[in-house]
Amino acid sequence: MMSLFDTPSPPVTGLTGSPLDRADHIRRDPSAAIAVRSRPDARWLVLDDLKPLLTADPKPELFWAHRSDIPHNAPSVFLGLTPDGAPRFAAAAPAADLIADYGGRLLDARAAAMLLENGRAAILAQARSLLAWHARHGHCSHCGAPTQIAKAGYARTCHACHAEHFPRTDPVVIMLAVHKDHALVGRQPGFPPRLFSALAGFLEPGENIEEAVARELHEEAGIITTDVRYLASQPWPFPSSLMIACFAKAKAAELTLDFDELEEARWVTRAEVLAALGGSGDWLAPPPMAIAHTLLKAWAEAS
Length: 303
Ligand SMILES: [Zn+2]
Fold this sequence. Notes:
303 residues, alpha+beta, Nucleoside Triphosphate Pyrophosphohydrolase, 3 domains, six-stranded mixed β-sheet, 25% helix, globular, binds zinc ion
């Protein structure tokens, strides 16, 4: 009999592997959450309009500012502790003065995540998702009163009706339909020229991952699928998705596209996918940071 753990581990995906300990014992203790802010080794990642400030080095890194650099009223969230125990935070604040004093530059978060290694992109994902959520949830969804930041940035509370609100993560299925020796890739209308990727869509209330995969493939490409298999997942902080990557077996190759969702779709071979992943194909695959890249690579390299 096969053991539960005989199947391979999921591949490592982009935007994961943060070195920080999220230190929940600090987040749920209000006095500890205040005390860590005053530690001399505490540092802040600055996001200006959700764009992170990076160092000016040839190989840019996250810029870590001191508390004195952060405006008093800037929304600030606790990210966790470094392996050395130093507190790390993120703040939504203007970066112009920091750039004037120390150099560095603001970069679009996706572009920044592609440059950062060793779990740094995961820190950025955590910071960007949390600060984006705070920026959009200043009022209570129950009663409309203003809400206040709580639990070191992991909740907002409403003093009028006492509701607590928590940062949300929206699950998205992203899947490769497979038919014999071909996999299905498609182009959404807004994609950069020549880019093809796995099909994707939001999970809806009241369905599981397998049902969402089958529904999305049927809606977007008109195919019936079976045998949904999970591969891996990744956070996608634009603004707050969890991408859940799966394979599914298509019963037939005939496609009926929903042109609102897909402007083109095609069945591709393993050789074509490997060429696209390596940058030498006649279409472009998503970058390694994106789980669609992981999904295409896993299929192309499977026997
Ligand atoms: Zn309320």
